[in-house]
Amino acid sequence: MRWLFALLLIVLALPALAEGPKPGGHPRSGLARVDLTHSAIAAEGRDRGRPRPLDLTLTISQPVPYRVYFLDGPPRLVVDFREVDFSGARTGDLTGADLVPDLRWGRFRPGWSRMVVELPGPYALRRAQQVPARGGAQGALFALRIEPVDQDEFVTRGHALSALWDLPQPALDAAAAAPGPADRPLRIAIDPGHGGHDPGAQVGAISEAAVMLGFATELAEELTRAGFEVLPTRKDDSFIPLERRMTIARAGQADLFISLHADALPAGEAAGLSIYTWNQDADDRATRELAMRHDPSDLVSGLDLARTDDQVVDVLMDLARLETQPRSEGFAKFVVLELRQAGIGMHRQPVRGAAFSVLKSPDIPSVLIELGFLTDPGDRANLFDPDWRAGTSRAIARAVSGWAQDDIARAGLSRK
Ligand SMILES: [Zn+2]
What we know:
This is N-acetylmuramoyl-L-alanine amidase. The protein is α/β, with parallel strands linked by helices.
């Protein structure tokens, strides 16, 4: 259900856009432009001093991928567009702009534009669509319908860090106020690999599932001590499908997802700790082999998108990941940095990409840490050494702290 909601929020109008320009290669002249003369905010019903249903229409010179979500404190609607040129378009010139407490728009990071509509109360999205422009205008009409709801029905995007990205460049609109600090500790989803009828790698009586559960418990304690909230995807030896692991993280509004593994590979092929981030195109043999182990075919789905066109889903995922992927990679770098400082040995190429389904969450920075390989005697000794485990947990917790600070700083920079 949660995912359906997320899908609703990340909306793409036209599958044809799959062939559209990639971020970065976006020619400035080809940017979609907003046409304010064919755009408006309209309220339904009489003004009785209470929030009313609102219709927002924007005419843009060409259809663009977009996504819609809400934030609270104050309640606001955020629409991210794959870039729309708002330059020269003054928010005060939009018909009906006075129906909302505040309205801002602008470019907020390369390839993306953002519109923030402050709302008179909590709302829910009823409809979002892009259709051919009407009334003689060229391009596409982006139409959005939102309706007032009770506070407890107000569903906001829960990521504290994303909330910091809320505002377009202040230069575009002086009314932009700095957001408050995140109102809760960072929440880290810890995902001990395998479990239940899937023991993972096995060497003698040792199973990866059991070793990872033990390590996850120690890491959770370390993170809790460091002031973070921990959200485990499993607490015992039960089988949790991959998609469920991501759903748990999303439902719990995790800010970061760390999957823990210690797989098996034929002797000599792999040894040492390594950190994986999502990469669909990774194709070295060992990585492929690991991906197969992690993704028995009945679990490959990752997310339940059965009723959605594959191509559209891929584009949606890519769009959302534009923002998440650099954050995942950023975290991996912090892990390497801290492990190095702690003198903990790693694979000679410690950060790699892999198409592990569990890393597929488009909206939560995710890494998979192979703590070592159970098939390697040195790695096995490490995993059974309490000092090594404590040092590694501490280093990962420090990496989370360093990354969080860096991430907030970057989010702040993107608004300047
Ligand atoms: Zn594994």
